[in-house]
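(Deposited chain)
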Amino acid sequence: MNDPGLDTAIQSTQPKRARSRSIAIVVSVLTHALIAIVLLFIYLPNPATEDVAQTPASSTTSSAEETSGDPTQENRETPAAIEEIPADRLERAIESQIEQADQLSDAEQLTELEKNLQRLESMSDAESVNDVTETIANTLGLDTESYAPDKPPAEGAFDYDSAQLDDVTRKQGENGRWEYQSVLVDSAGRKMTVPMAPGEGETMYQTFEQMKKYPLAQSIYRGVVMPMLQSLIESEKAAAEAR
């Protein structure tokens, strides 16, 4: 016979786990979305014909970083073949860009994201972006299908350990203030909605609204950003357990 008190206690912990997971992801979503789009500019056709985007990767990298094997600083006359760049070197480039992006405020990162999305749409097509996205993911050992938009949800309980932000919505409450909800999706396609605090909710809402305006952004987010964040969280968890 089930214990009603135990069932209630288990159910009460579920929103807390989902909310904690949501908060952990929010810290990195905007930064990684910006960085993933910057990475694409290295490999898309004829990037030299475009103005260099004023992103952390192109505007604040020091000379020391330029000589450390960061592929974002290489000659852009001929786009590099990403297959020829070792994964560890690509990872160092990502780490370098994260450090630089973290120096920007959320508002500044949103501005840079908007500029780069506009540039991406003007210089690229879906096929080339999808090809480069898949190659980046393969180089980093990421599963591009984990968070595919057309993935049918599996049966069973929601997997908090593989949950990533799928969307952020908002509605006006009775007091006239915006109330934010994060839509989480796990790697099996199951979804869950949990409340977000107004501060983080507004930033993530604006981030997703920007990406919705640009069709190419969705494939980049699902193909690289979501699995990249999942891989990062798993690595940090494994490192913590090994201590």
Notes: The mean pLDDT is 76. Strands lie at 164-172, 178-185, 191-196. The chain has eight helices and three strands. The helical segments are 4-43, 56-59, 63-66, 87-101, 106-123, 126-139, 198-212, 215-242.
